[in-house]
């Protein structure tokens, strides 16, 4: 029964593992893109300009209100022409095709960006006002205020929330399989189709996802512990 | 932007709304029963009962919905005994596989919401109803449940929206609901942006209506602060 998972050309073991690596890669790059988007849009939501707040509000409402699959279809079918359109503005005329990895990263990154926005906004809001005031009193501004005083605190508070966003992102990458990127989901479909053993391969896929979840939980827990050093936990108070 | 195409495809995509709503409402209603059962198992206090519920929730929340759908639709049909069982008339239909998968998924997620709601009911209320001579069953039905519903409502509203979004996945197993029709039109016309705007607005409208109903229900039920 487990012959099908043999490594090398006779089995699907190494292919499934490569699928898992691809899932982790595309999830990680999507999360990083999402956090970047989240920082920008959280700054927009907290800004004094109505236009910026409105743009950020529209973005998070749309992404959180429509199915992820639609966003992926939009980028899968429209991504290349959008990039070519942009390239034309900068004077490049030619055919550009985005690969499935890039499309997947952009699509899932955009989705995870909307969730990250809320997490980061909440974290910035929970930094005590006094921290900003003291920083300003000390004559700090710009990078030295936000980069050195506010950001480390925001990062600590946002960490559990980002852990949740990672979970969502990881699961959303399964949807990219419809665009042909060979990650866990796609690979198990291929293997299931060619061996006529769908049950075994989907079970293997479930185990791989749970394994990644478990390992990333350990990672986030230890990161949380590390960055909470020097803080008294609420329970201890 | 091709407005005429958007106008035309709007009427085609609208035809998918009944299927989306049907699948969402059937699985939501079935899911509530599952969720209450799982939540009660988790807070039962007996390890033998609560551990299976814990692992069930862990399994469902830790894996993508698409994988669960494939597992039910393709994975289970592999076995002879399932194809000969009484469940086969259901399991061979993508429609019922979709409903089963969505029911299991929302059952797991909402069980956490319900569990949180039940745990938020103050011990004082339970003690008070005991002092008033209410039986355990009556306490649950008359005291714990109403407060739980009120507490869980905002989070459950989010879960409903997630369900509407999740129902789009059944288009992958050939069901022609909103996303399925949109996908077909996109590959015929190659106008992803226009179709995205039309289908996306329909989803936003559905979710907006849900949000309105949930906040109406929240107001009707009054703010019960369990302290």
Notable characteristics:
heterodimer, A: 237 residues, mainly alpha, MetI-like fold, 0% strand, B: 227 residues, flat
CATH H level, superfamily name of chain B: MetI-like
Q: Which stretches of chain B are poorly predicted, pLDDT < 50 over at least 5 residues?
A: none
Share in helix of chain B: over 70%
Radius of gyration of chain B: 21 Å
Strand fraction of chain A equals under 5%
Question: Could you spell the SSE succession of chain A in H and E letters?
Answer: HHHHHHHH
Low-confidence stretches of chain A: none
Q: The CATH topology of chain A, please?
A: MetI-like fold
Describe what you observe in this structure.
The complex is a heterodimer of chains A (237) and B (227). With 237 residues, chain A is an all-alpha fold. Chain A has a single domain (15-229), classed as MetI-like (MetI-like fold, Orthogonal Bundle), CATH 1.10.3720. Chain A contains 8 helices and no strands. The N and C termini of chain A lie far apart (55 Å). Chain B has 227 residues and is an all-alpha fold. Chain B has a single domain, classed as MetI-like (MetI-like fold, Orthogonal Bundle). Chain B is built from 11 helices and no strands. In chain B, helix 8 packs antiparallel against helix 9, helix 9 (136-166) runs antiparallel to helix 11 (192-220) and helix 10 packs antiparallel against helix 11 (192-220). The A-B interface holds A 61-62, 64-70, 73-74, 76-78, 167, 171-175, 177-178, 184-185, 188-189, 192, 196-199, 202-203, 205-206, 209-210, 213 and B 58-59, 61-67, 70-71, 74-79, 161, 164-169, 171-172, 179, 182-183, 186-187, 190, 192-193, 196, 199-200, 203-204, 207-208.
């Amino acid at each position: 029964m487990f012959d099908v998972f043999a490594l090398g050309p006779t089995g699907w073991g190494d292919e499934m593992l490569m699928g898992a690596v691809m899932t982790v890669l595309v999830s990680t790059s999507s999360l990083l893109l999402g956090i970047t988007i989240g920082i920008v849009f959280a700054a927009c939501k907290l800004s004094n300009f109505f236009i910026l707040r409105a743009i950020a509000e529209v973005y998070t409402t749309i992404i959180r209100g429509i199915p992820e699959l639609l966003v992926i279809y939009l980028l899968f079918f429209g991504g290349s022409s959008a990039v070519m359109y942009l390239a034309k503005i900068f004077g490049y005329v030619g055919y550009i095709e985005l690969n499935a990895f890039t499309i997947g990263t952009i699509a899932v990154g955009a989705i995870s960006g909307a969730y990250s926005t809320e997490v980061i906004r909440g974290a910035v809001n929970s930094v005590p006002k006094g921290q900003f005031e003291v920083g300003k009193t000390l004559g700090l501004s710009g990078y030295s205020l936000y980069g050195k005083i506010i950001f480390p605190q925001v990062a600590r508070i946002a960490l559990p929330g980002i852990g949740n966003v990672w979970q969502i992102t990881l699961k959303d990458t399964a949807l990219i399989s419809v665009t042909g990127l060979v990650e866990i989901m796609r690979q198990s479909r291929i293997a299931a189709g060619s061996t006529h053993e769908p049950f075994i391969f989907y079970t293997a896929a479930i185990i791989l996802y749970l394994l990644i979840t478990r390992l990333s939980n350990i990672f986030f827990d230890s990161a949380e512990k590390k960055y909470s050093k020097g803080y008294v936990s609420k329970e201890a108070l | 932007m091709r407005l005429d195409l958007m106008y035309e495809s709007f009427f085609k995509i609208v035809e998918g709304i009944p299927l989306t709503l049907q699948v969402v409402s059937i699985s939501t209603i079935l899911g509530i029963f599952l969720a209450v059962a799982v939540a009660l198992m988790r807070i039962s206090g007996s390890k033998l009962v609560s551990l299976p519920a814990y692992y069930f929730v862990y399994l469902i929340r830790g894996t993508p919905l698409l994988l669960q759908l494939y597992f039910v639709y393709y994975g289970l049909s592999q076995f002879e005994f399932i194809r000969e069982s009484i469940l086969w008339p259901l399991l061979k239909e993508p429609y019922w596989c979709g409903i089963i998968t969505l029911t299991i998924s929302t059952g797991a997620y909402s069980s956490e919401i319900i569990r949180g709601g039940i745990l938020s009911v103050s011990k004082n209320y339970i003690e008070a109803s005991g002092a008033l001579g209410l039986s355990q069953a009556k306490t649950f039905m008359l005291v714990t449940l109403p407060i739980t519903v009120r507490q869980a409502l905002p989070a459950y509203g989010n879960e409903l929206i997630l369900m509407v979004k999740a129902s789009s996945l059944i288009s992958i197993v050939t069901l022609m609901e909103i996303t399925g029709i949109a996908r077909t039109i996109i590959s015929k016309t190659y106008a992803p942006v226009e179709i995205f705007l039309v289908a996306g607005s329909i989803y936003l409208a559905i979710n907006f209506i849900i949000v309105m109903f949930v906040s109406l229900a929240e107001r009707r039920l009054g703010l019960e602060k369990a302290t």
